[in-house]
Amino acid sequence: GQTVDEAVDLLSGDGFVTAGGDYAGRGEFDVALPGGGSVRVTRGGLATSGTTKRRWLRAGTWQHHLIDPATGRPAESPWEQVTVSAGTCLQADVAAKAAFLLGPDGPAWLDKRGLAGRFLPADGAPRLNRAWQRSVLDTVAA
Fold it and tell me: Are the beta carbons of 33 and 39 closer than 8 angstroms?
């Protein structure tokens, strides 16, 4: 996330940088979302963390890179992917990982911090926290 933020700072005009599910831009750009759809990002960063990309099979069991600090093992979560919008890509990246690790408590945790989150469970139907819903409604109303 921080590298993406720093790379955008090197741009002389409008443009964007994406890397590994992280986005930061200068100007307005439409960004595709996991599971379909898109969102227009006008400022700040957007980051997605999940288990669909960085995973591997070990002894017949799927492993991934998001580790539960309590067990030291790949975390179990109802979410396959969590996307967060924040003031910077680094903030969005850290928050997306935390919301994923918090499982069912992730949406409320983001709401307490005023961060918009989109949660994609295994069934593929996105679930939006209150902050994301408000941001979408504000955009539609404008």
Answer: yes
C-alpha–C-alpha distance, residues 110 and 141, integer Å: 23
Q: What burial class does residue 65 get, using C-beta atoms within 10 Å of its C-beta: 0-12 exposed, 13-18 middle, 19+ buried? A: middle
Give every CB contact of residue 73 below 8 A, 6+ residues apart in sequence.
67
| Cβ atoms 46, 18 nearer than 8 A | no
Per-residue pLDDT of the chain (142 residues; tens, 9 = 90+): 999 999 999 999 999 999 988 999 999 999 999 888 899 998 899 999 887 776 657 777 766 667 777 877 777 889 989 999 999 999 999 999 999 999 999 999 999 999 999 999 988 789 999 999 988 755 544 4
Strand residue runs (E) in 1-142: 15-19, 22-26, 29-32, 38-41, 45-50, 55-58, 61-64, 79-86, 116-121, 127-128
Query: What one-letter code names the amino acid at 130?
Result: R
Backbone angles phi, psi at 60, to 5 degrees: 80, 5
